[in-house]
Design a protein that fits this description.
The relative contact order is 0.11. The chain has 526 residues and is an alpha/beta fold. The protein binds adenosine-5'-diphosphate and magnesium ion (MG).
């Protein structure tokens, strides 16, 4: 059997005083798909980085096919037949798919005998579980295709153990099923073993044989997927009924009180039914092409409009143009019945809030600390500000409250924002944007990279906003998220809305086929 048996014995890894991994003893049976579940910070990446020689464990041992083996570097890991698909793309942008594949194999394009290399790649592509155009350049690939390229790069090396870190976040449900189904088939054929890090229970139950749950560096359980329920796994991930569980609806929540008063407050605006109205919007993309072509949409009060689509079909440009970070070439946008340009002033007057993608880059000031970033919205408005004086004491009190309520893992309110993990930056922005009673929320992939508990928290915040009458534009690449939250769903493809459906009538297959619409096929054919 080509597939490898992996066993760790009491593997431990510390960073300074912090135990990121404590005595983890885990077995991956050869020819199986082994899912690894855990909240953000549970130690999943640290664990797999110990397997690929990125970290040296402080204690413990690694056994491959029942023999102890030291993996001191990624080169050792490759020699042992272990490959890893990282969460972030490592595609070389200036090189074609073919060149990227050869580079992954350690061949430099300058030294390649092209005719034979091409024939070899063509043969590889034919038996690969999914195919890509060898001559395509990364800029022309969708995020899903880039992810497939990452997987193909590893498969070309014929690994005996393949590790994947959340590989499906940028795939459509059909693509995810295709990719995971193909990988499972290879595993079950005895060609390789697979470790799959994921946050999606659906993928665990549909594709994994065994599942292990890590919590705070400890292995909580390893068990067969058959016979395990999502509820049991969720409990293993977050622990018992502890303070760990999000409790957004608690009566002590000051936002809830604010929301109640807000509902009683008479509103002076003329148009009360539409929170967002976009007519005939046209926006250019980074390379001067049309990213949004003639897009119109409306969101009512108390409605969540989900925008589905494979990344790269104009969603990013849509949000940027709405919040004033990208010029509009044509069309009109109004919020709460008034023309809207995304300025701070209008955001405040109209109650518009936004959660853009990559919050560290787009919604934070990297040189500032957590407190300053939390204060970004309000530092120049009473009560935070009186005259010229910013009341830092008051802001600090709020910051400390938010850190606790949103369970932001930070050494304190004065820590630099860049020192926080992605999930905690997300929570910081979330605290800031959702703490006041917004009337329109513009949100993009709000749970991208967040763990189970944090995702649940974001979702209940969005539902709360809807309950108190806010409109929500929810752009997401995660269909499960859209189906769970939206009242209505539109699909974006190639800068247009190509499909609209009410949430009750929406189904994954139909949405998925509209998502994989024309632009996707023409790219493949090109
Ligand atoms: P996961 O992948 O499950 O989200 P990680 O393995 O990335 O978790 O991190 C586990 C814990 O170890 C986290 O609390 C993280 O902050 C910490 N950690 C990870 N890498 C380092 C590092 N290089 N230095 C210090 N702490 C780290
Ligand atoms: Mg990780």
């Amino acid at each position: 059997m080509h597939a490898l048996k992996l066993e760790t014995y009491q593997l431990s890894k510390r960073f300074g005083d912090f135990a990121a991994l404590s005595q983890v003893s885990l077995t991956v049976r050869p020819g199986t798909v082994h899912a690894l579940l855990g909240e953000n910070g549970a130690g999943k990446s640290t664990f797999v980085k110990c397997l690929v020689g990125y970290y040296r464990p402080d204690e413990g041992a690694l056994l491959i096919d029942d023999r102890e083996r030291v993996i001191a570097s990624p080169v050792d890991a490759r020699a042992a037949g272990i490959g890893m698909v990282y969460q972030h793309f490592t595609v070389a942008p200036g090189m074609s798919v073919a060149e990227n594949l050869l580079l992954a194999r350690g061949q430099l394009p300058a030294r390649i005998h092209w005719p034979s290399a091409r024939a070899e790649l063509q043969a590889f592509m034919e038996q690969a579980p999914f195919s890509l155009d060898l001559d395509a350049m990364p800029v022309d690939l969708s995020a899903g295709q880039k992810q497939k390229l990452e997987i193909l790069k590893q498969m070309l090396l014929r690994p005996r153990l393949l590790i994947l870190d959340e590989p499906t976040s940028v795939l459509t449900p059909q693509e995810a099923d295709e990719v995971l189904g193909a990988l499972r088939a290879r595993a079950h054929a005895g060609e390789c073993s697979i470790i799959l890090i994921t946050h999606k229970f659906r993928e665990v139950s549909a594709f994994a044989d065994d599942v292990s749950v890590l919590r705070r560096g400890h292995l909580i359980t390893t068990r067969a997927v058959v016979g395990s329920t999502s509820a049991e796994l969720a409990r293993a991930m977050v622990g018992g009924q502890s303070e760990d569980t999000p409790n957004p609806g608690a009566p002590s929540n000051p936002d809830a009180k604010a929301a109640a008063t807000n509902q009683d407050r008479p509103c002076a605006d003329t148009d009360q039914t539409l929170t967002l109205q976009v007519i005939g919007l046209k926006v250019l993309g980074d390379r001067g092409q049309w990213a949004i072509r003639d897009l119109s949409l409306e969101i009512k009060r108390g409605e969540i409009l989900g925008v589905a689509g494979i990344s790269g079909n104009g969603q990013r440009e849509l949000l940027q143009s709405l919040i004033g970070q990208r010029p509009r070439e044509a069309g009109s946008v109004s919020a709460i019945g008034r023309p809207y340009d995304g300025s701070r002033k209008l955001n405040r007057i109209l109650g518009v809030r936004s959660l853009p993608e990559e919050p560290l880059a787009n919604a934070c000031v990297p040189g500032m600390n957590v407190l300053q970033n939390m204060a970004l919205r309000d530092f120049d408005v009473a009560p935070a500000c009186s005259g010229f004086w910013v009341r830092w004491g008051r802001l600090r009190k709020t910051a400390i409250e938010w850190i606790e309520r949103y369970r932001i893992k930070t050494p304190g309110e004065f820590a630099p924002i860049e020192s926080l993990s992605g999930g905690n930056v997300q929570r910081t922005v979330l605290a800031r944007e959702l703490s006041s009673d917004a009337r329109l929320l513009l949100v993009s992939n709000p749970s991208f990279g967040l763990d189970f508990a944090a995702t649940a928290e974001v979702h209940s915040r969005l539902r709360e906003a809807r309950e108190r009458g806010a409109g929500v534009l929810l752009i997401s690449e995660d269909l499960d998220e859209l189906l769970a939250l939206s009242d209505r769903i539109v699909v974006m493809s190639d800068g247009r809305i190509v499909y609209t459906v009410s949430a009750q009538q929406a189904d994954r297959q139909t949405l998925g086929s509209h998502m994989a619409g024309d632009s996707h096929h023409s790219l493949k054919a090109a």
